[in-house]
Design goal:
- 11% of the residues are buried.
- The radius of gyration is 13 Å and the shape is elongated.
- By secondary structure, it is an all-alpha fold.
- Helix content is 31%, strand content 0%.
């Protein structure tokens, strides 16, 4: 993590544990972790493999 990102997190008041639990959630459609979804909620795949499930939006379980 860069210093800039670390500073933004600290200034936001969000706890590290909250961030971890947020990104550990999985998409109901493709099963990839939320962190694999970009800012447009499109799944970019995991481990350099594209998502082939047709997933285009994250939905929390």
């Amino acid at each position: 993590m860069t210093n800039q990102t670390g500073t933004k997190i600290k200034e936001s008041g969000i706890l590290t544990a909250e961030l971890i639990s947020h990104f550990r959630e999985k998409c109901k459609i493709c099963g990839h972790h939320r962190i694999m979804h970009n800012e447009l909620d499109v799944c970019e795949g995991v481990m350099n493999k594209p998502c082939t499930s047709g997933c285009d939006k994250f939905e929390a379980e």
